[in-house]
Amino acid sequence: MSELMTSMVKDRKGGKIVGVPSYCTANDIVIEALIRQAKELDVDILIEATANQVNQFGGYTGMKPADFRDFVFEIADRAGYPHDRIVLGGDHLGPLTWVNENEVMAMDKAVTLVKLFVEAGFKKIHLDTSMRVADDPVDKPLTDETVARRGASLYQACEDSYQELLKKNPGEKRPVFIIGSEVPIPGGAQEQEDSISVTKPEAVAATLEEYKKQFASISDPAAFDNVIGIVVQPGVEFGDDEVFPYNRENAKELCKKIATFDGIYMEGHSTDYQPPQCLRNMVEDGVAILKVGPALTFGLRDGLFAMSEIEKVLIPEDKQVKFPELLERLMLEDTSKWAKYYHGTDEEIAIKRRYSLSDRARYYFAMPEIREGIDKLIENINSVTIPTGLLYQYMPIQYKKVRDGKLEKEARALLMDFVKDVADDYNYAAGYLK
To answer: Where does residue 431 rank: exposed (0-12), middle (13-18), buried (19+ CB within 10 A)?
Structure first.
């Protein structure tokens, strides 16, 4: 089992400025690209699933935690990448998908959820109890005591599952834990914003102290020692058409406060689309875990749209997939995954369906018609030879790699390179690339 997370903590305690990219995605092409890139760089990899993607009821992917594990491992097998170099993470594990139920029912489901993640071998667990459930007061925020109490109960459920694993395998590694959630719901901001408020240092201190208190009340007195990070808002976010870059001056006091808690590092969510130097600055300042999700599938979508332009030139019209049109049709047939997130005129919303940075289109990529369309597009492109100038026109970054003998001019490899190009920024920030 990979020591990626514990070695990161050890290295940072020793003075090394290292980070860990956290890839949150359930798309097979994206995961394959990331795993192949990790193999090329000879590094371990952290791949995460959120509670709305994967849960005991299947989530929107149709997968339970063990299914997701097997899904990732099968991709790794195709790439020739060892399972023991993969860390699986569970993100926003808590009552996220059951907020319309009362505390007893929502937390009961959350307990089952975290147990299944631990039983399936996930080794990085983000306990997130920051959301209101049906019987919480609607006129005031949740107290730190309520959030931490619920978080501690989920930790205990994880510990119970881990102890069961130990009976089967005495060498089983203990999961590490992340707490807190100073961010919007998964997927980026829903509304246009003018600025992003950085988490207040005193709020972090109060949260950590309350968690320590609540963890001390459960059976394991050393429980909090297994917490390595807290989710904060360091001042980064993205929306449909905007990116808020990291400003280390604005986050200075937050970073100073976190540094006073030994062995606790910040996890940054919504780091998608950040400039690479901003990502590196975050790692240097203590945001040691950089979570990215929509930017990865947005990169894949970019590649699919570019490949569709090549298809228009090289493939007879009656055999073309016309992927952008296929995606648009399916998004209009089922508006539930984007309608409440995209606002504006009909023309503005039409652009957002295709090009919004929040990338609600990714929720359609698991549909059979989309999967068949992608497979057919790949088949179409592989049935012809792409002229050099045409490749340069629509895939200029990939053209240079093909020209230099670093990339095969094969459709799936070209698509995966769009994802790798996004991930390169995170590999640079983590210290894997210079």
So the answer is: middle
Q: Which of 236, 263, 227 lies closest to 182 in space, CA to CA?
A: 236
What is the amino acid identity at position 233? Answer: Q
- Where in the chain are all domains bearing CATH 1.10.400.20? 298-415
Polymer length of the chain: 434
Q: Could you give the angle at the alpha carbon of 225 between the alpha carbons of 64 and 117, nearest 5°? A: 5
10-residue mean pLDDT profile of the chain (434 residues): values are 89 95 97 98 98 96 97 98 98 97 98 98 97 94 95 96 96 96 52 71 94 88 93 95 96 96 95 98 98 98 98 98 98 97 97 98 96 98 98 98 98 98 98 90
Closest CA to 208 of 156, 259, 251, 261: 261
Superfamily of domain 4-292: Aldolase class I (3.20.20.70)
Fold of 298-415: GI Alpha 1, domain 2-like (1.10.400)
User: Which residues does 315 contact at the CB level (< 8 Å), separation at least 6?
Assistant: 380, 381, 383, 384
Distances (CA, A) of 73 to 87, 129, 308, 413: 11, 29, 30, 19
- Answer whether 0.90 is exceeded by the pTM: yes
DSSP one-letter string for 319-387: G---HHHHHHHHHHH--TTTTTT--S-HHHHHHHHHH-TT-GGGGGTTSHHHHHHHHHHHHHHHTSPPP
